[in-house]
Amino acid sequence: MGDSEMTTTPAKNGAQINPAAPSDARQDFGPDGGASQSPVIWRIVLTVLGGALGYVTFLVGVVFEDFALLPQAQWALGSALVGGVSMALVLGGPLPLRRAALFAVLAAAVAAVLGGLYGGRFAAQDSFQTSGFGALILAACLLIFAPFVMAGAPRGGMSENGGARWRDYARLFDLSWEMVVRAAAAVLFTGLFWVLLMVAGGLLETVGIRLGRLLRAYDWLGFVLSGLAFGLAMAVVHEMRSYITPYLFVRFARMMLPLVLMVTGLYVVAFPFSTAEQSTFGLSPVLSVLVMGAIAMTVISAAVDRDDAEATQSRFLRMATRIQAVILPALAVIALYAIWLRVAQYGWTPSRVMVALTCALAAGYAASYAGAVLLGFHSNWAAWLRRVNLYMALVAAAMLSLSLTPLLNAQAISARSQSARIVAAYSDATPQTPQTPQGALYDLKTGYGKAGRRALAGLEQYAEVQELAGLQEDIARARSAKSRRAFVNGQFGEPTTAGALTELFQAMPIYPEAQGRPDHTGTNVPLGTLNHWLRSCRARFEDGPACAMLMLDAQAYAGRQFVVLLIRRPAQVITLEINEEGTVMQNGATLRATSAGETGVKIADLIAAARDGDLRLDTPSGPSVFMGGLEINPRLSRGLRPRLFE
Question: pTM higher than 0.85 for the full model?
Answer without folding.
Answer: no
